[in-house]
Specification:
The strands form 2 sheets. Strands 1, 2, 3, 4, 5, 6, 9 and 10 form an 8-stranded mixed beta sheet that branches. This protein has 9 helices and 10 strands. Helix content is 41%, strand content 22%. 35% of the residues are buried. Helix 2 runs antiparallel to helix 9. Strand 3 and strand 4 form a beta hairpin. The chain has 340 residues and is α/β, with parallel strands linked by helices.
Length: 340
């Protein structure tokens, strides 16, 4: 078990323990010297066996005292260790459309900001049994944040997103499927950046129900202008037992915006988003009704997982230190007639 310390500066106190032991040893020698000076008043001399037993009786309480003090100093440094903690949890991947059309202002102030507002409210209602990850997609897709129960990290990842280029909804779905499969094996491996090659290989097809504790929440205006076909990607999700809950951002009337020098009319494509949700057994939602998204959490089952977590073990060290000092005190009273 690897142990680290939150307050490592407190470990400097360990240097005081040898000094205390030296002072105790000097005092003990003086005490024994005074006893020896009175030796003429004793009748007979102790046997060698008795001398060894008395010496051992002195060492054991002193050794236990030093060990107890050492452990208590370690406790003051607030030790922590990575422990595999069992818990029931489900996984939600928030797949964000960050294409150029998400800069449209038919939803105030923009589609992107409206999507962020919707998800912030959704994350705020995140129960402890759910971990959330963030995937961004435009003409490619990549995982921005591996699934975590830390809402602060999720919100920070969402805040960093900005509109970019074209739209490939399928890439967003594929990246989300990969993030789910990887997180169930090892969360630390599921992190991608915009410098990482886009993951295009789908995870293996599994038996129905395997990924029931996982779902994708896809936020997009539904306009797709890049391959592959998003409906094929949706079917791939369905084949792996993963539901996609789509959230439409924008209006049916749409608006005209300028993209790389061209004027483009962009509008919400609700039919496409509804088909994606229907294929996977999910539900379509409108971004204007963020409270309705809470029902997604109720539709996600949980499973027992062992999640490595940094856990503070100060109480264990403190308890062990107190126990050692207590045993040392009892041993001193029993064998020496005093506390060491």
């Amino acid at each position: 078990m690897t142990v680290s310390f939150l307050w490592p500066s407190m470990l400097l106190l360990l240097g005081a323990i040898p000094l205390g032991a030296l002072a105790y040893r000097i005092g003990d020698r003086r005490r024994r010297g005074r006893i020896t000076a009175l030796g003429s008043m004793r009748v007979g001399a102790p046997s060698d066996g008795r001398v060894r037993r008395v010496a051992l009786a002195r060492r054991i309480p002193a050794t236990l005292t030093l060990a107890g003090l050492t452990v208590l100093v370690l406790a003051l440094a607030r030790p922590q260790s990575v422990v595999s903690t069992p818990r029931f949890e489900g996984t939600v991947i928030l797949a964000f459309d960050v294409s150029g059309s998400m800069a449209a202002d038919d939803v105030a102030p923009t589609r992107m900001e409206a999507a962020k507002t919707t998800v912030r409210a959704f994350v705020a209602r995140q129960p402890p049994s759910i971990v959330a990850g963030v995937v961004a997609f435009s003409d490619s897709g990549f995982s921005v944040l591996v699934p975590t129960a830390d809402q602060t990290e999720v919100l920070a990842a969402i805040d960093r997103l900005d509109p970019e280029r074209g739209t490939s909804i399928a890439r967003g779905i594929i990246s989300s499927l990969t993030a789910i499969a990887t997180a169930e094996r090892d969360p630390a491996e599921g992190y991608y950046t915009n410098r990482t090659p886009d993951p295009v290989q789908l995870p293996d097809v599994v038996a129905p129900g395997t990924h029931v504790p996982a779902a994708i929440v896809l936020l997009s205006d539904g306009e797709n202008n890049q391959r592959p076909d998003p409906l094929e990607a949706a079917q791939a999700a369905a084949d792996r037992g993963i539901r996609i809950f789509t959230v439409g951002v924008g209006t049916a009337e749409g608006t005209t915006l300028e993209v790389e020098g061209f004027r483009v009319h962009s509008r919400l494509d609700e039919p496409s988003l509804r088909r994606i949700a229907d294929i996977t057994g999910g539900t379509y939602y409108a971004a204007r009704d963020p409270a309705e998204l809470e029902s997604i959490y109720r539709n996600i089952e949980t499973r027992l997982v062992l999640r490595p977590e940094a856990t503070e073990v100060t109480s264990l060290f403190a308890g062990a230190g107190v126990l050692l000092l207590t045993v040392a005190g009892l041993a001193g009273l029993r064998w020496l007639g005093r506390v060491p």
